[in-house]
Write a structure and sequence with these properties.
Blueprint: H1 2-20, E1 26-30, E2 37-39, E3 50-51, E4 59-60, E5 66-68, E6 77-79, E7 84-87, E8 97-105, E9 112-118, E10 131-135, E11 140-145, E12 148-154, E13 164-171, E14 181-187, E15 190-191, E16 203-205, E17 213-217, E18 220-229, E19 236-240, E20 254-259, E21 266-268, E22 271-275, E23 282-284, E24 287-290, E25 296-300, E26 320-324, E27 333-336, E28 344-352, E29 363-368, E30 375-378, E31 387-395, E32 402-408, E33 421-426, H2 430-446
Parallel strand pairs: 20-22
Antiparallel strand pairs: 1-3, 1-18, 2-5, 4-7, 5-6, 6-18, 7-17, 8-13, 8-18, 9-10, 9-17, 10-11, 11-12, 13-14, 14-15, 14-16, 19-31, 20-33, 21-22, 23-24, 24-27, 25-26, 27-32, 28-31, 28-33, 29-30, 29-32
Length: about 450
């Protein structure tokens, strides 16, 4: 019964995920739902298991995985220790902005992995090309970049015998790419630290990916594998001069409104931004800011001789910030929780163009847990000390958690993103407006 409930839970999670990703092209999706039992290729082309523009697709070394409609692993693709499978496609026909999503359940602490961007199809037991994530001891993972292990750390979401959802987001300019690729990995919508040197939550894969075979290695059970384009959603920016053009309004519904790195609560257009304090680490009601760098601190920008040009009460949001002055030069990540599944929200990040120690601008690549397009934005794009608002539209997933992470384009104190303040607002339900429209139509027809 426990396994059946687990499969039901995974199916519900997959339905919500498909709703969120409806505007992205799906190349391959496999729910491993079968009638009877067999190897990983069993009933793969029956029109029930798989969907997507590149389906049906068989697996190489398919005898190393098993699917069934009964028993402990019903509705899952189960692999024992050292088992390995790969979909028989390379997935290089996209523009290079891709997302891999899947659910896994681990029953022991054997070394298991998911690899992507690989040059070789039958290469399950080592990540000799491309990148990957390895799940090792309880709550422990390793990131892999070709033959290098950039990071080994702990993620509390990665227990045994419980399902967790993994989202991997990559961005590069096509296959092959003339430049680097950027990669972020989220577990249950919380980002993982990607390398030990900087502790950033987004990773720069130098020279990018030439090919894009993927592979999975047991022991684990696997479900709801999806390979799709990144969402068209991007982090957007706008100039911010005063309270009137801040977008802040008491007519909106706020789930969060926080003023970083200060004890002061600032009220703008009737909306209170609660001071987060100066103690590290930083967290509050249903939010946490993570940055593992030893150089993280809460700074008043007046310390470096700068004063924001933003006028009005909103100026109180940009007098202090969280900034990593080194040695890691980490931009960190923000995670929100307690969100309503399926509800639309807008995350707003408020800042100014702090030009202290920024000869190369404050350009950062932003990645989001919903698999939106990784986007580069310069925090100083509107000039020294001038205001900027970043916003991102998203739909809350089944667990009500959303995260945004950044990595500086230039690794120095002048490149990191400075976190001043943020808010999160509810997007009114379209169904409400549709109902109002129908009522209005009925009214006019009755006239």
């Amino acid at each position: 019964m426990m396994k059946k409930l687990t499969k039901l839970t995974l199916t519900l999670l997959a339905v919500i995920s498909l709703t969120i990703t409806a505007n992205a092209v799906t190349y391959f999706s496999d729910n491993y739902t079968v009638t009877g039992s067999g190897d990983a290729d069993y009933q793969y082309a029956d029109g029930v298991r798989q969907s997507g523009t590149m389906s049906p697709t068989n697996y190489i070394a398919a005898t190393a995985g098993a699917v069934s409609d009964s028993g402990d692993y019903a509705g899952l693709c189960h692999m024992e220790n050292w088992d390995g499978i790969s979909p028989n496609e390379m997935y290089t026909n996209s523009a290079g902005k891709l997302v891999y999503e899947f659910d896994i359940i681990r029953y022991d602490t054997g070394w298991t992995a998911f690899a992507f961007g690989k040059d070789f199809l039958q290469d399950w037991h080592h990540i000799r090309s491309g990148m990957g994530i390895a799940f090792t001891a309880v709550n422990t993972y390793e990131t892999k970049d070709r033959d290098v292990q950039p990071y080994m750390g702990v993620c509390s979401e990665m227990g045994l015998s419980n399902a967790y959802h993994v989202t991997i987001v990559i961005a590069q300019d096509g296959f092959p790419t003339p430049g680097d690729a950027y990669v972020a990995i989220f577990v249950n919508n919380k980002p993982l630290i990607m390398d030990d040197a900087t502790k950033n939550y987004v990773y720069r894969h130098v020279a990018g990916f030439t090919n894009n075979y993927i592979s999975m290695r047991g022991p684990l059970s696997f479900d709801n594998l999806v390979i799709r384009d990144a969402l068209a959603n991007e982090v957007m920016s706008s100039a911010w001069n005063n309270d009137a053009d801040s977008g802040i309004s008491s007519t909106k519904t706020y789930t969060h409104a926080v003023n970083f790195a200060t004890d002061a609560t600032t009220t703008v257009n009737g909306v209170e931004f609660i001071g987060s304090g100066t103690a590290l680490p930083q967290s509050g009601a249903n939010w946490v800011y993570n940055n593992a760098s030893a150089g993280l601190g809460a700074y008043a920008i007046s310390m470096v001789g700068e004063t924001p040009n933003v006028t009005g009460a909103g100026a109180g949001l940009v007098t202090d910030c969280l900034l990593d002055a080194g040695p890691g030069f980490t931009s960190g990540e923000l995670t929100l929780s307690g969100l309503t599944p399926g509800q639309g929200y807008i995350l707003n990040l408020y800042g100014v163009g702090l030009v202290w120690s920024a000869p190369n601008s404050r350009s950062n690549y932003f990645a989001t847990s919903d698999g939106g397009t990784i986007t580069m934005i310069d925090q100083s794009e509107f000039g020294a000390d001038n205001g900027q608002v970043l916003n991102y539209n998203y739909t809350a997933p089944a667990n009500g958690v959303f995260s945004i992470a950044a990595i500086p384009a230039v690794t120095n104190a002048g490149g990191v993103y400075c976190w001043y303040a943020f808010s999160n607002t509810v997007i009114p339900e379209p169904a409400i407006f549709a109902l109002l429209g129908l009522l209005g139509l009925a009214f006019f027809r009755s006239k």
